[in-house]
Structures are given as C-alpha cells and as structure tokens.
Design goal:
The chain has one domain. Helices cover about 75% and strands about 0% of the residues. It is built from nine helices and no strands. It starts with a helix and ends in a 10-residue tail after the last helix.
Length: about 240
C-alpha cells in the first residue's frame, strides 16, 4: 500500500535535522561556564585576591602576577578554552538564520562578530598565559605591557565584537519575528552598550560599560540560543 505523502511529511519534520548543528543555547552556556570558571578559579587559587585592573598601581599589579602564577595560568587557559564554543555558536547561529530565510546582512554580521570576538578572547587568553611564566612575571615592564595588551584584547576588543554578534542576531530576530520582541529589543540595547565600551580606550571612566555589556551579553546569548527556532512556521491563509 502506498503511503499518503500528507501523513509522512509531518513525521519527517518532527525528526531532528542532522545538519542543524549543536544546540546554540548549550554552546552559549558552555562558553559562559568556561569564562566564569576562569574568573572564579583564578580568584580562589590566588587566595581570594581578584585579578588586578590594568589601571591599578604598578606595585599591586606586578606583585599579583609574580605571586600567583598558577592562578594566572588557569585564567588564561580557561579564557582560551571559552573561545572555542563561542566560535561554534557564531557559525551555528549564522547557518540557522540563513536556513530561516534571513537574506539581510544580519546573519553574516553575526558570524563575523562572533568569530572575531572568539579570536580576540583566544589571543587575550594566550597573552595572559604568557604572563604566568615566572621569567616574565618577575619583570615589571613586560608585565605592564602584556597586561594592557591582554586587557585590550579580552576587554574592549572582545566585548565590542560580542555586541556585533548580538546585534546580528537581534535585528533579524526582531524584523522577522524569530525572537520574542522584548528579547530582541534588549539585545539591541546590550549591543549598543557593547559598542560604547570602545570609549574605554579613551577614558577609564567608561570601564563600567565592559562588565555590564559582557555579562548581560552572556545571558542574552544563552536565551537567544534556546529561543531561536529551528524552522520558520508559516501560517496557511
């Protein structure tokens, strides 16, 4: 007996698409967990001393890197590790937006922003790892220079490009109705804050924008990753 195509099609649609890639919400959660683990573990290994600000006194900064090489090494390693799921997230979300019919530049912007944010975070992690080497940590000038470089890569460079990833998802999510309106609008606000964090390169007073945009962005990427649909639902008129 020949099967009726009308009864087969719905069952086929219910199967998981083998080319859909890993769930982006899970990737965002893994990225967030690795990044936060680097912050928490490095603080614990340093006996409760937080990672020093590059704008702090030279004596405080140099003594931290000299006395807590193990904590700095763990921080750099986990920061580098966190860059991997972020890159996969960007690729997966970009492919899904294309599959959902997004032809505007948003999908490509999300991919470019996510890949660059991942690259800057990886470079920051590697520079931080270099700071954990005893022969480097014992010298004041290299420590200060490398800390500024690690901060620039993992701070404004990473956060600004993370904002580009968020905007690349939020704009088509809003215009095409792929995400809840409130979530899409909040993404645009977070993306704007992330872009404004560029001001950190001009004034230390803007440094507060970095943690706000970063941690709000992490939560937003997790939510968007779980709520972005696998396929577009078309209503029949």
């Amino acid at each position: 007996m020949t099967a009726n195509p009308d009864t087969v099609t719905p069952r086929a649609h219910n199967r998981r698409d083998p080319q859909a890639g890993p769930p982006p919400g899970v990737l965002a959660a893994v990225f967030t967990a690795l990044f936060l683990a680097g912050l928490v573990l490095s603080t614990l290994l340093a006996g409760g001393d937080p990672f020093p600000s590059p704008f702090g006194p030279t004596d405080t900064v140099t003594s931290y890197f000299r006395d807590h090489t193990g904590a700095v090494q763990v921080s750099g390693a986990l920061q580098f590790a966190a860059s991997v799921p972020l890159a996969i997230y960007a690729a997966t979300v970009s492919a899904r937006l294309h599959k959902l019919g997004v032809r505007a530049p948003g999908a490509t912007i999300a991919l470019a922003g996510g890949v660059l944010a991942s690259a800057f975070l990886a470079c920051s992690g590697l520079v931080t790892w270099v700071l954990s080497r005893p022969e480097v940590a014992s010298r004041v000038e290299p420590v200060r220079a490398l800390q500024y470089l690690a901060f620039g890569l993992g701070g404004p460079a990473h956060v600004v490009l993370l904002g580009l990833l968020i905007a690349g998802i939020a704009v088509p999510g809003l215009l095409a109705g792929l995400l809840p309106r409130a979530l899409a609008l909040s993404g645009l606000v977070i993306a704007a804050l992330a872009e404004l964090s560029t001001l950190v390169l001009l004034t230390q007073a803007a440094a507060l924008l970095l943690p706000i945009a970063r941690f709000a962005g992490l939560l937003w990427l997790i939510a968007a990753g779980f709520l972005l649909p696998r396929r577009r639902v078309r209503t029949e008129g």
